[in-house]
Amino acid sequence: MQSKKIKVGIVGGTGYTGVELLRLLALHPDVELSVITSRGEAGLPVADMFPSLRGRVNLAFTDPAQADLTLCDVVFFATPHGVAMSQAKALVAAGVKVIDLAADFRLQDTAVFEQWYKLSHSCPEILADAAYGIPELYRDKVRAAQVIGNPGCYPTTVLLGLAPLLEQGLIDLSVPIISDSKSGVSGAGRKAEVATLFAESSDNMKAYGVAGHRHHPEIHAQLQQIAGEQVQFIFVPHLIPMIRGMLSTIYVKLSALGLKTDIQGLYEARYQGEAFVDVLPPGSLPETRSVRGANQLRLALHPQADSGYLTIIVVQDNLVKGAAGQAVQNMNIMFDLDEQAGLNIVPLLP
Ligand SMILES: NC(=O)C1=CN([C@@H]2O[C@H](COP(=O)(O)OP(=O)(O)OC[C@H]3O[C@@H](n4cnc5c(N)ncnc54)[C@H](OP(=O)(O)O)[C@@H]3O)[C@@H](O)[C@H]2O)C=CC1
Ligand SMILES: CC(=O)N[C@@H](CCC(=O)OP(=O)(O)O)C(=O)O
């Protein structure tokens, strides 16, 4: 455990994941917020833009071009894809840890990254040493890493929903795994977009990215990594009229061994001691409001006796376990802090 406070920088403090990082870190016992950037709001007190932080965050936004991030111990990038990788080399050289909430350090195959993000990777050598930031799957790698690729929001639900089965080889992989996933509109960020206008997204529900979504290659690569073999995967995201929250319904065909296994017992054993993954009792129907505002993922298992399929329902808050909360969890591990520091939050209900 270290006794000095960790100096934290946040690049992209005016976006949804940026303000969520501020909310969590403002009460973190081991953190000193040092720099919060905005290109458009430099000089403005953070609490003037976000009154929810009055009395909690006393800094003003700094222009990222003027910010000396090398004075920080860790920098979170809550920015669009491509920003973190443009600064990672200098920060790593200065001994600063980097946690990117975008996709720059998630996909080890740079050709796949370039295909989906239309950016060429500027620091593949740093990518090669980066850890994929789901602690429940890669805690030791996270602890040792200087750079974290924090996962996309959808991937966390699908990967934690499937890991126990994949690790034990209990899925019939001759047929595709299917995830039907739904997100609240804050998943699209704070930037202006027609699809997230109130008149477009409220009282409405729609699928999108059916022909291809950039989280498909991220999830697919990780599924194959965990399974150690080829996996077929179908992914359909949906936009639903909520501000925050995400629900994935995952369908898998169990293998012969899977059909004979106590799946509920397997999941309970796999996630025992994991504070942020909750395996609900048999028959439960997870609700997004049971995790709102908290770094919590809850899941329930529904065996379909007639077909040999298992349905797994997973919920999380896209901005917390799906983004900023998981990023803070990763920081805690990287700095050998209590993994739950700053994250002991009871979800907000109703
Ligand atoms: N929203 C979600 O649920 C999730 C988001 N993510 C990922 O996290 C990242 C941030 O998402 P989110 O907070 O929703 O996005 P927003 O669009 O809400 O915010 C983006 C932030 O980045 C800043 N920014 C934009 N361009 C640059 C730049 N070139 N240099 C420095 N700062 C820049 C903006 O600030 P300003 O213009 O003031 O400088 C703004 O604060 C994205 O990569 C997103 O894909 C990941 C998981 C979930
Ligand atoms: C509702 C909505 O629009 N969600 C976003 C995903 C948010 C996320 O995790 O994005 P990154 O991979 O970009 O970090 C989307 O589908 O594009």
Describe this structure in words.
It is a single chain. The radius of gyration is 20 Å and the shape is globular. The strands form two sheets. A seven-stranded mixed beta sheet has the order 8-9-7-10-13-12-11. With 350 residues, the protein is α/β, with parallel strands linked by helices. The two termini are 37 Å apart. The chain has two domains: 160 residues, NAD(P)-binding Rossmann-like Domain (Rossmann fold, 3-Layer(aba) Sandwich), CATH 3.40.50.720; 165 residues, Dihydrodipicolinate Reductase, domain 2 (2-Layer Sandwich), CATH 3.30.360. The model has no long low-confidence stretch (mean pLDDT 97). Helix 6 links the parallel strand 5 and strand 6. Helix 6 packs parallel to helix 12 and helix 7 runs parallel beside helix 9. The protein binds NADPH dihydro-nicotinamide-adenine-dinucleotide phosphate (NDP) and N-acetyl-L-glutamyl 5-phosphate. N-acetyl-L-glutamyl 5-phosphate binds next to strand 9.
